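Running this now, will post back.
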Amino acid sequence: MLTVDLASAVWRKSSFTQPNGECVEVALTPSVAAVRDSKDPDGGVVLTSFAAWEVFRAAVSRAP
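Update: finished.
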């Protein structure tokens, strides 16, 4: 099982998020991209490879 220390992670939201907007947040660590729900920052975190994160990001960028 992969363990990643996120205590000092810098979480970022999309620049397109409206004030008080809810979205996912991402923290890029040295080994993985960590993704969480901005409504529940103490909840679960999804860890994914940088390649998978880039595929997701590109797909969202193309969405209407």
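The mean pLDDT is 87. More later if anyone needs it.
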